[in-house]
């Protein structure tokens, strides 16, 4: 059984070697409407788990074949924090990861569990989903298992951020007529202002979903991104539109005061002259560049 996959290029994390902690079958405490996996009954714990030894052997073999890995990613056909030996596995991977960082892609459902928090604190980059704040939205969009108390998820994230120091990335996947409603976006903006993650990734459906739901356009995602005014926001969107516009110095400063822009944003929207102006603003220290978990941002200097 293949317990590792890749490495594959990730726009937001570099070359990623994946570890599938539920390679045999889907085991998840969410049954999200947008999931690219087939619908499945939610579970509160794994009923089948690979051994730590088998996973480590495959990771060692992969690292010998592919030594230039940026991140070793804990993921699953489902939710990786349901893997019962995660704490032990992280310790073993730390012994062999060399210069690579560890990353987990979690739906965040168990983040209010103190034991889960302590385990995740050992990982270099923790990426948590937070599609909704209201319980009504959570239950309709993410279709949570009865073992999950979604009313505790936000506080769990806040506690984790306050107590531990891994790089924290929050991901929101927007679905038409679900969490893109005004009141839900307002709640998310307020929540992210409290959390202050290192990076916020927003996106929408880009693969055939498990259920009949629709994606947002890039333009709508961009309007939503602009509401997270003090966050380092990336917009994940396949075939995002390219429109090389001319911006003056004041326009560029106004754009970056609203929110930091990624290198990808600049490449897709700035013409050559605008890029030269931006470079001058960086050289004169009116604009700074920062790297957040592998993504470069241009940020206004207060």
Protein described:
The chain has 302 residues and is of the alpha/beta class. It contains ten helices and eleven strands. The chain has helices spanning 52-65, 86-96, 114-120, 135-142, 153-163, 182-195, 218-225, 249-258, 263-269, 272-283, and strands at residues 4-10, 14-20, 71-75, 101-106, 125-129, 167-174, 199-204, 233-236, 261-262, 287-292, 295-300. The protein has an eight-stranded mixed beta sheet, with helices on one face. It has a three-stranded antiparallel beta sheet with strand order 9-11-10. Helix 1 runs parallel beside helix 2 (86-96). The longest helix is centred in the first third of the chain and has 14 residues, at 52-65. It is globular, with a radius of gyration of 20 Å. It starts with a strand and ends with a strand. 42% of the residues are buried. The model has no long low-confidence stretch (mean pLDDT 88).
Give a brief description.
The chain has 302 residues and is α/β, with parallel strands linked by helices. The protein has helices at residues 52-65, 86-96, 114-120, 135-142, 153-163, 182-195, 218-225, 249-258, 263-269, 272-283; strands at 4-10, 14-20, 71-75, 101-106, 125-129, 167-174, 199-204, 233-236, 261-262, 287-292, 295-300.
């Amino acid at each position: 059984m293949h317990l590792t996959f890749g490495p594959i290029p990730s726009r937001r994390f570099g070359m990623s070697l994946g570890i599938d902690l539920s390679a045999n079958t889907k085991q998840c405490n969410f049954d999200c409407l947008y999931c690219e996996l087939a619908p499945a009954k939610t579970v509160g714990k794994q009923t089948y788990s690979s051994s730590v030894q088998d996973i480590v052997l495959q990771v060692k073999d992969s690292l010998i074949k592919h030594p230039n890995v940026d991140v070793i990613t804990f993921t699953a056909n489902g939710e990786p924090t349901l893997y019962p030996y995660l704490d032990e596995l992280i310790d073993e991977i730390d012994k062999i990861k060399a210069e690579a960082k560890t990353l987990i892609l979690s739906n965040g459902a168990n983040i209010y569990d103190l034991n889960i928090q302590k385990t995740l604190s050992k990982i270099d980059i923790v990426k948590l989903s937070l599609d909704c704040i209201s319980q009504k939205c959570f239950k309709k969009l993410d279709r949570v298992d009865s073992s999950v108390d979604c009313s505790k998820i936000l506080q769990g994230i806040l506690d984790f951020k306050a107590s531990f120091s891994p790089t924290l990335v929050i991901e929101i996947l927007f679905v038409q007529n679900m969490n893109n409603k005004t009141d839900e976006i307002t709640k998310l903006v307020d929540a992210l202002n409290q959390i202050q993650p290192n990076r916020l990734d927003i996106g929408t459906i880009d693969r055939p979903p498990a259920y009949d739901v629709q994606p947002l356009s890039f333009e709508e995602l961009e309007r939503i991104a602009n509401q997270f005014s003090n966050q380092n926001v990336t917009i994940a969107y396949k075939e995002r539109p390219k429109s090389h516009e001319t911006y003056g110095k004041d326009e560029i400063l106004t754009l970056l005061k609203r929110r930091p822009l990624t290198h990808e944003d600049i490449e897709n929207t700035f013409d050559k002259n605008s890029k030269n102006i931006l470079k001058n603003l960086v050289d004169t220290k009116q604009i700074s560049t920062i790297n957040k978990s592998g993504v470069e941002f241009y940020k206004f200097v207060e």
